[in-house]
Amino acid sequence: MLASRPAVGGTAEAALAEVLGKSTKAAPAAANLPRAFAHVLLEYFDPSTSSMVPKPIQAMPSLQKTAFYDASTAVIKRDEPLQTALTDLVEGKAAYKTLQSNLAIALVDLSGDKFAPRYAGINDASNFYSGSVAKICGLLAAYQLAANINVFLGAGPPIASMAELETEIDKEWNRLGVSKDRPAVSQVLQFHAGSPPTVTLRTELLSRFDAITTGNENGSTAVVLLRFPFIASTMLAHGLFSRETKSGLWLNRAYGPIHYPTSADPERSIPNWSASAEDPFPAAPVHCVSAIAAAQFFTLAAQGRLIGAAASQAILRHLRLDLGGCADADPDLDLTALQSTGVISAKCGFYEDVWHIPLYFKHSTSEREFVVVILTSGHHAGVVKELFADLVALV
């Protein structure tokens, strides 16, 4: 379980068999990462019925495609009227037009049928240094580990404690030949005895997710504890990094060491980890984002498709502006009107010459719902306030 060869025959049943650890031979993981992990969705989208199916299945990029983007083929489908309006906007204002490769935009109108959103983008598959935006990789990966382990516990032999779980999961990972650079399971998850037993994210980690933007350590905690192979394979499995374009959300360096105390060791610190030699995409920025990948992340969450509805809702909650989310720097965006009518989830990133705003909005009483992603580099933060207002007006 938790690592697998490609599903035999390509069927949902075969993929699920692999996730549940029914393979008897270790082989390279389907996620295209050496000695990597495979991951489970607890619910998946069935395009034939345009509805979610509550059934565990292996997460694969082709399964996580949206109406506008498929990372397994790198195909982007743009809504012609919305794309024309966006292109005219960017071409029509000198302040935007002159940014050229220093600007990327993704715009998703989820109003109405959120499984058939309208999409438009500019320079949207290009990699940017992400700043703190890529901390959402650790956020998703933590919930992914919990989902994977709960499937393992539901399908495996009786396990009575975290110590037993760590022993058994190490045996399974050894059998399947995954990376020796593995998540610190007991530091990420809390064990709950039962029939079957279950795990949840530790309270300390949840608290840090609720303050993911406050101080570098809160956002770095999950990244440090989960480590590169697990995080990277999570991004690949969800189609948030494309093998075809070699762009998207990627994280090949932690943001710094963490102080993660226990009752036995109140001063415990866990060191940073540097770039991994296992990285198959070393040309990508170590902290990486593309506009379409950020848009895909928030769209999948809005659709309840990041693992399932519960995980998606929890992730969006952590990123609410009144908790860990952020969309401001200098100059501040005017989000008063939006916040007064709905809920905003966002994860900004600004560092030296970059300022990025990936933002999701859901109106409280109407169907208005959208994702706006703005990525800038080259010290162009000054245009973002006006550009954001112009983009919101398009949806």
Polypeptide structure, described:
The chain is α+β, with helices and mostly antiparallel strands and 395 residues long. The chain has two domains: 79-132 and 298-394, no CATH class; 135-288, no CATH class. The chain has helices spanning 12-19, 80-92, 94-97, 135-155, 162-176, 185-188, 203-209, 216-237, 291-302, 309-318, 336-341, 384-394; strands at 40-41, 44-46, 51-53, 57-58, 69-70, 75-76, 103-109, 118-122, 128-129, 189-192, 198-201, 241-242, 247-248, 250-251, 258-259, 269-270, 287-289, 342-346, 349-351, 354-363, 369-376. Strands 7, 8, 18, 19, 20 and 21 form a six-stranded antiparallel sheet that branches. Strands 9-17-14 form a three-stranded antiparallel sheet. A two-stranded antiparallel ribbon has the order 1-4. The model is unreliable at 1-31 (pLDDT under 50).
